Every structure is written in C-alpha cells, then in structure tokens.
Amino acid sequence: MKKIFTTRTVAAILLALICALSIVGCAKQEEESVQYDLIPMVMVDGVLYLDTGYNGTYVTGDTYDREITSAVQGYEQPTENDQSNFGTGFKYRYGEREGTIEIEMNSLCRIFATEAVRQQIQFPNQ
C-alpha cells in the first residue's frame, strides 16, 4: 500500500495551519474600549454644576442642608437631582455667588458652578 502523505508533508501542513490560525486569531482581536472620567459634577434642581478647582471658606459647624444621595460612574454625567459622578454622602448648599454650590469634601468647601459661571471664575479677563 502506498502512503499518500509522508510524515514530513503532514508536519509541514500542520505547521502552515497553525501559522494561519494564529495570524487570523490575532487579526480578530478587538481593541478594548477605554473610557475616561469626566470633570467632577453634580446635578441640583435639574442643573449641572461642575468643579471649579477652587475651595471656599470652610468653617466647622457651617450648615450644609442638602446631600448627594446617588452616583453614576466617573465617565458619566449625572441625570438626576442630588446625583454626582464622584460619590455619595457629600453635604452641600447653594453658594454665595449666583450659579454656584459649595460641597463639603474632606473638611474643605469645594466650589462647583454652572458651566457659564465656571468659565467666568476660571477665566475672569476673557
């Protein structure tokens, strides 16, 4: 009886098949989706307030009459009142300046503002 394939031929075919499958396997890998965190923000009475990067004057015992009660992921925008993208349990109040709120964070008074007011605070001469 005559052999159709020699051992060397079978080995060469298997090696070619393995190489082809590894190339196809590498080509089909999908890139992982990377999502970056947004600037810290909170929704209050249907309005988004964004972190200004500034601290206000914090006095122990100050009254912060509202609280952030729910949160979304850091890469999402809040869609409900008293919701942030940086955590829950933070107390806040309306700020002295129109369009701002003050959030008590780690014994600091962090100032958040609407986008329009935030631009005025960060770039006052423009």
Please specify the SSE layout and strand pairing.
Blueprint: H1 7-27, E1 41-44, E2 47-56, E3 66-67, E4 70-71, E5 83-84, E6 91-94, E7 100-105, E8 108-113, H2 115-122
Characterise the protein shown here.
The chain has 126 residues and is α+β, with helices and mostly antiparallel strands. The chain has a domain at 41-122. 23% of the residues lie in helices and 29% in strands. It has helices at residues 7-27, 115-122; strands at residues 41-44, 47-56, 66-67, 70-71, 83-84, 91-94, 100-105, 108-113. An eight-stranded mixed beta sheet has the order 3-6-7-8-2-1-5-4. A hairpin with a 5-residue loop joins β6 (91-94) and β7 (100-105). The chain is rod-shaped, with a radius of gyration of 29 Å. It starts with 6 loop residues before the first helix and ends with a helix. The relative contact order is 0.18. The mean pLDDT is 85.
